[in-house]
Amino acid sequence: MAGVEEASGVCINEALTDDELRAVLAKLQSDKDKEVFGLVCKRWLHLQSTERKKLCARAGPLMLRKMAARFSRLVELDLSQSISRSFYPGVTDSDLKVIADGFGCLRVLGLQHCRGLRKLLPFGKEGILSNCYRETASWKCTFITKVIMAVLYMPDAPKPNLLVSHLGNPGYMGLITETVGIKEAHLDEDLRSHDGGLKRVHLMVLSRILLVLIADEAGITDVGLMAIGRNLSHLQSLDVSYCRKLTDKGLSAIAESCCDLRSLHLAGCRSVNDKVLEALSKNCHNLEELGLQGCTYITDSGLTFLVKGCQRMKFLDINKCSNISDIGVCSVSISCSCSLKTLKLLDCYKVGDESVLSLAQFCKNLETLIIGGCRDISDESVKSLAIAACSHSLKNLRMDWCLNISDLSLNCIFCNCRNLEALDIGCCEEVTDAAFQGLNKGGSKLGLKVLKVSNCPKITVAGIGLLLDSCNSLEYLDVRSCPHVTEAGCDQAGLQFPECCKVNFLGSLSEPDVLV
Questions:
Q1: Can you tell me the distance from the alpha carbon of 298 to that of 291, in angstroms, rounded to the nearest whole number?
Q2: Domains of the chain, with CATH numbers?
Q3: Structure confidence by residue, pLDDT tens digits, 439-453
């Protein structure tokens, strides 16, 4: 009996070591169970916190310091902002310094859309210059480098309008005067401060007009990024998409310090240039994923230099990089021939057949190819792609607005690319029902899940019928603006779409992002 009493009095915290408790925690599969584990006592909460690997948060420097102390082994931190909603004051350089100092184990950092916020500042003492334009309003804006004036009419004011313009534009005041009928509006000649900001603004205004100054908050800059580079040299993944204040200085510092970088996303970072690609080539030889969408300063020279040192590239997004041509793409296909799986070239209008022919020749493992808007691409190169080694690996192909594409190349794709899952040929006006005749020649059902044929005027209900005969896995079909394909016409023809298939006749359905 005494032995039983002694056994029942043993405390589990005294019996189990930290390593044994960590082993128990590792056995728990769901996040909810792990959270419950931390509710037992402070010791268990501490262990649960130190073992946490991933965290999504919005926090300022003070809270980040507390998080760093609690989640000491954090591997992935996501501070990305929403596209539609921003949170004041957003992520700043001060936050990045705290992250750099406090999260020593960090490998993945997400800062997407941390571009700073615009703070509304009332114009005048009360924010509204009311009733008449008797007086001239003055407001001092010392050291504000980017000031935007928004002129907003009250609901009952005449000529409702919204005008947004940079005050630094010499023609701004004339534009305001002409548009909204302000009697007098001028800038003093000595308004600019030494940092390019504005010292004073004098405006004469009409009644019932609300004037608001909008000043850009800092957001993250090269200063914060350099702090990350100095202290987090083991960083493997960084997403700073749409952080528009970053330049080659800060990004090159990341490349030089974080030599084990595997993934880097810079979409919408307008100041990115070839210097960044050169720094990556020299230092980040393990780079596998690079997003450069909208980085219009990138050129063929930078891309060629990049792949000399980064030959393990699996994912490359150069959508809307308008200075890229066949020279740059051919360099990528040759240098990354074994590794490249995804290449995005949307609206790279200088890219033509030579690029696709090179991809067909060298890239045997290509899975996703985006060439929408590359209007010089023709049937010749697409047919080569369809019969190349990558025809067995190709899953996603976007060719919308490739105006020279016809039934010949599409027949070849349907016959040979039997693992194709998503295809976009929107606005390819030469495509007809004959394109779908090759569907039955492969001897097996096509695994196509997404097909977009919007604005293809020569495709009819008969062509859609051929598609359905050979493809029973279709999940999304886009036939918007196809004059001969209507819901009533499909019903009349007795077409039977797969149960899970969503057919977009009028644009009322959301589109899958597989081909973005």
A1: 12
A2: 1-51 (no CATH), 118-216 (no CATH), 395-516 (3.80.10.10)
A3: 876 567 889 999 999
